[in-house]
Amino acid sequence: MPIKKLSVLSLMFVASFPAFSADHDAWKIMSNTFMEIEKFEGHRDADGAKVTDKVNLAGQLFISNSSSKWRYFIEHKESMRNYGYAISGSDNSFIRNRTQLGITRNMYKNGNNIFDLNLTYRKESNDGVTDRNARPSNTLFWLMPSGTYWINEKLAFSFWDAFYHYDNFRADNSYEWESEHGIVYKFNDSTTGRLMVYTDWTFDNDFNKNWEQNQIRGYMTKIIDPKWSISPYFRYFLSERSYDAANTNYVTQRADGGLRIGTEVNYKLNERLTMWAGFAVEKTEWEKPKPNGITSGSDNDQTFYLGQLGVKYLW
C-alpha cells in the first residue's frame, strides 16, 4: 500500500487561498503548521511493544497572487514511525523525512470555471535509530490537472487526476494514478457539499497493477459564523486489493468493507490567524489478518484513528 501523497486539506488550501485577502496586486504567503497522530488500534512492533504508527510534524507554505496565473507550494514533514506512546524509540523505530516543492499554473479561467495544471517534486528519506540501517531514500514526481465547471449557480463538476512516477521507492511502485471526480453543490452562501469518486491505483515498472483502492468520498463545509467553520467528511470503501508481483491476476489481500468518518474545525482568531483541529476514525474488515496486531477478531477488523492540531497564518 503506497504512502499518501496529496491530502484533501492541501487541495482545499491551494484552491481557496486567494479568499484570505482582498488585495489583488500583492503576493501572499499562508503557512500551515500542524501535528498529526495516526494510530492503528492494537498495533505492536516486531518485538511486541505497543506503538503509534505515525507522529507527524509538518510545515506548509502556500504562495499566491490572485492577479497571477502561478501558485507555489512548499512542505516539509518529519514522521516518527513505530514509536512508543511516550515517544520512546526502539530498534523498530525510524524517522521519515519528506520535502515537497509544487508549482501550479492556471490554464483557463472564465468566471468560476477553472482548469489548473500542477507539477510537484518530492524527496523522501528515512533515518534509522542507533545501530540500525536506514531505509533507502526515494524521489517522486507528479503531474496533476484539476478543474471545476459550474453547470449552474449551485451545481458544478469538479476533478483532479494525479499521475506519479517513483524512483527508488521502497515498494514495487513505479507509477501511480490517484484521482477524484464528482459534483459540488452549493446549498447556500455558508454551506457547500462535494460527492466524489476516489481512485488510487499503483503499477510496477512494466505497468502491471499491484494495488488499488476505490472509494466514495463526501465532504461538507459549513461556515457557522465569521469565526467558526466545520468540515465533516466520510470515505466509503468500494474496494481495496493488493496483487501478487509475479501474477497480477492473483489477489493477495482485499478489504471486505470500510468506512471513515471525520471532521475538521476551524476557529479564526483574527484576519490572519486561524486555529484548526481534525479527527477521524476508520473501520475496515479484511479477508486475511494483518501482522503486528493491526487486525483482530474473526472478521479481521481494523480500527484506525487520526488526530490533527494546527495553526494557519497569513503573512
Automatic annotation (TrEMBL):
Signal peptide range: 1-21
Pfam family, one: Porin_OmpG
Tagged with keyword Nucleotide-binding: no
Transmembrane segments: none
Keywords, alphabetical: Signal
InterPro entries in the record: Bact_OM_Channel_sf, Outer_membrane_porin_G
tRNA processing among keywords: no
Gene3D superfamilies: monomeric porin ompg
Coiled coil: none
Name of the featured protein: OmpG family monomeric porin
Species annotation: Aeromonas sobria
Lineage per the UniProt record: Bacteria, Pseudomonadati, Pseudomonadota, Gammaproteobacteria, Aeromonadales
